[in-house]
Design brief:
Elements: H1 2-14, H2 18-22, H3 29-42, E1 45-46, E2 51-53, E3 56-61, H4 63-68, H5 73-91, E4 94-95, E5 100-105, E6 114-119, E7 140-144, E8 150-152, E9 157-161, E10 168-169, E11 180-185, E12 188-193, E13 200-202, E14 205-207, E15 209-211, E16 217-220, E17 223-229
Parallel strand pairs: 2-4, 3-5, 9-10
Antiparallel strand pairs: 1-2, 3-6, 7-8, 7-17, 9-11, 11-12, 12-15, 13-14, 13-16, 16-17
Length: about 230
């Protein structure tokens, strides 16, 4: 299935070897994706004009497995949410809202055990095709300091990095392929470092996560991006 191949390819290219080290045994990321797709198929609802599938998936794992991928759980969640989007699109199914994947821990489970709950939830916001952009209610953008190039922050999550196809693709050898991410949380915007090799600076200070204010400068390698409210 193309969805699973795409998922594995993104993990290999985008998380820079983390899973090769962390997932030598026990629960594997590909099994998470397969189970989500099976639950999607098993829980679809046939309407008059469209087939609807769950958009929210709760993955219940053992404490040992949760600990093993805790360092990249956010990145894994984003890739699994893309699996939901692509799986629905490939089959022509509808989503009532944007995909959401949530991890929970069950102390009674053993390493490698997995329970998946599929739910229909409109609380995650409206769904659209592709990578699920949502209306830019608050309004913000990033501006490249060198030449004034702009990127509109019109998605809930915008990845900054060297990886081709990133929402904010930067040509900088000091940037990781998936270096950082801008997350929109209501009317706030937060920049989160994605475990990059060289780190992320906001106003020349290293951060793991920081709320952005108008005029803040994000430095990635030698690239400087200015956050601006519209």
């Amino acid at each position: 299935m193309g969805v699973l191949r795409n998922f594995e390819s993104r993990l290999e290219r985008g998380i820079e070897g983390f899973f090769k080290a962390a997932f030598r045994s026990g629960l594997q990321p590909i099994e998470l994706a397969k189970r989500i797709l099976r639950q999607m198929e098993a829980n679809k609802t046939v309407g008059v004009r469209e087939v609807w599938v769950p958009n929210r998936y709760v993955l219940v794992v053992s404490a040992e497995d949760r600990e093993r991928f805790s360092g990249a759980e956010g990145a894994l969640v984003r890739e699994l949410e893309t699996v939901v989007t692509e799986g629905a699109r490939e089959n022509g199914w509808g989503l009532v809202a944007r995909p959401e994947v949530v991890f929970e821990t069950d102390e009674g489970l053993k390493r490698g055990d997995l329970v998946v709950r599929a739910e229909l939830s409109e609380a995650t916001g409206p769904a659209t095709a592709g990578s699920v952009p949502v209306p830019d209610a608050a309004g913000a953008r990033l501006v490249l300091a060198d030449n004034g190039r702009e990127w509109s922050l019109d998605r809930d999550r915008s990845v900054i990095g060297r990886l081709t196809g990133s929402e904010i693709e930067v040509d900088d050898p000091g940037a990781s392929r998936r270096h950082a991410e801008i997350r929109r949380q209501g009317d706030r915007y937060v920049v989160v470092d994605l475990g990059s090799t060289n780190g992320t600076l906001v106003n020349d200070s290293p951060i793991s996560e920081a709320t952005l204010e108008d005029g803040d400068r994000i430095t990635i390698g030698r690239t400087v991006l200015e956050f601006r409210r519209r």
